[in-house]
Amino acid sequence: xxxLNVNGKKHQIAAPSDTPLLWVLRESLQLTGTKFGCGEGLxxxxxxxxxxxxxxxxxxxxxxxxxxxxxxIEGLPxxxxxxxxxxxxxxxxxxxxxSGQILAAAALLRDNPSPTDEDIDEAMSDNLCRCGTxxxxxxxxxxxxxxxxxxxxxxxxxxxxxx
Length: 163
What we know:
By secondary structure, the chain is of the alpha+beta class. It folds into 2 domains: 2-72, Ubiquitin-like (UB roll); 81-159, [2Fe-2S]-binding domain (DNA polymerase, domain 1, Orthogonal Bundle). The chain contains 7 helices and 5 strands. It has helices at 21-28, 62-65, 81-88, 98-111, 117-124, 134-146, 149-156; strands spanning 2-6, 9-13, 47-50, 53-56, 69-71. It has a 5-stranded mixed β-sheet with strand order 2-1-5-3-4, with helices on both faces. Helix 3 (81-88) crosses helix 6 (134-146) and helix 4 crosses helix 7. It is globular and about 45 Å long. It starts with a strand and ends in a 7-residue tail after the last helix. Mean pLDDT is 90; it is low at 149-153 and 159-163.
């Protein structure tokens, strides 16, 4: 049995330690917001935060994730500033990459509450959007950054478990 701390809750998982975290999240825990994209850690659709760091769940084993704080899109509060900004700016088209994009943006804003365009482009460059909504992603991140201390506190909450 492997113990995972996901979105602030501990789960006992009966799976081989080399099982990709993505499949445990989706199939065992029914947290389907984390998407399968490429299966090789290249696209970012499966991005979760592990101990606050954007991590590809498709190439991270449950054994590697055990003992860490794992945050999925379901663990980010519905009223989180990034979720609100994503909708206000109409970022999603197909929406497939958005969970990974939002979590990567949360980590960015936690570490850099006032990012430049270049900071955003660098931090988000590993998350691919087939619909090409990059300008809207940048705009949504700037909107949250401009929101001041309340948004900064909410983004800082992305370090670990649920809010």
